[in-house]
């Protein structure tokens, strides 16, 4: 009986304290929730406006025409969206990630906010990797054209150009993967293995029996280049000077001459 009289007030006090804690938690959570919603909705609207204005600005400066003329733009020609729309959508997604990070920061430290912070910290690597990939594709196309043109008379111009372009593109791919930090040990090991394979194969092929064929192909290419230079038409404004040959000079000297008598003067 005595124990029951002692426990009842303790339970009532604990219940009352729990109710007060719950009300305080709800009261403190409601302003945070309102701030979260306002930040999310307002930030999304601002991000949409900024992305739309960025897409319109790119269209006005002719960004779509420039991209469509390039090789990556030709690959994207089958898509319905224009390049400026793609850039605008990517910008909108990135801005929404920043908005979400700011919105969840209202609740203090939380796992979702930390995840968004890590994603945003990784975005510069993605941007740099994308730039590396685009530059590598452009350099690969240029290397393919240059090598194919330089070795056009050797009979292996197409294969040499494709090999050069593929090599440049492979190096760019490995650089992009390294920037993204995707399996760095595997990527680095594979890169060194492929590089050693290419260099070793070239050394063995040239050192064992590739020098005479390479010399023959080089001479063939130089002869073809010389013939092409000789067959080029003369440029306008230039005159060809010819010296008279011996036969022409002989024909001119062998022409018959006629003696014309001089007029006589009168004696008177």
From TrEMBL:
Alphabetized InterPro entries for the sequence: MSC_TM_helix
Source organism, top-level taxon: Bacteria
Polar residues: bias regions: 228-246
UniProt keyword list: Membrane, Transmembrane, Transmembrane helix
Start and end residues of each stretch annotated as Disordered: 227-268
Pfam families per record: MS_channel_1st_1
Residues passing through the membrane, by range: 33-51, 86-107, 119-143, 155-177, 189-211
The keyword Membrane is annotated on this UniProt entry: yes
Protein name as it appears in the record: CmpX
Protein's organism: uncultured Acidimicrobiales bacterium
């Amino acid at each position: 009986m005595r124990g029951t009289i002692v426990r009842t007030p303790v339970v009532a006090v604990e219940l009352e304290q729990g109710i007060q804690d719950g009300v305080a938690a709800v009261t403190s959570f409601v302003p945070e929730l309102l701030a979260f919603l306002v930040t999310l909705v307002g930030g999304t609207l601002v991000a949409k406006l900024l992305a739309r204005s960025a897409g319109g600005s790119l269209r006005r400066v002719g960004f779509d025409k420039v991209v469509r003329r390039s090789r990556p733009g030709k690959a994207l020609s089958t898509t319905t969206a224009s390049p400026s729309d793609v850039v605008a959508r990517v910008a909108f997604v990135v801005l929404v990630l920043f908005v979400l990070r700011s919105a969840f920061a209202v609740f203090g430290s939380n796992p979702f906010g930390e995840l968004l912070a890590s994603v945003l910290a990784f975005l510069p690597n993605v941007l740099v990797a994308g730039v590396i990939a685009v530059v590598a594709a452009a350099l690969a196309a240029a290397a393919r054209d240059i090598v194919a043109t330089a070795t056009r008379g050797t009979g292996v111009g197409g294969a040499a150009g494709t090999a050069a372009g593929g090599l440049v593109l492979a190096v760019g791919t490995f650089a992009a993967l390294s920037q993204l930090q995707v399996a760095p040990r595997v990527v680095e090991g594979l890169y060194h293995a492929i590089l050693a394979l290419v260099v070793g194969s070239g050394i063995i092929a040239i050192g064992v029996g590739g020098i005479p064929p390479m010399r023959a192909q080089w001479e063939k290419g130089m002869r073809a280049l010389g013939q092409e230079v000789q067959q080029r038409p003369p440029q306008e404004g230039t005159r060809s000077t010819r010296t008279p040959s011996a036969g022409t000079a002989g024909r001119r000297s062998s022409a018959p001459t006629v003696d014309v008598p001089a007029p006589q003067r009168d004696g008177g």
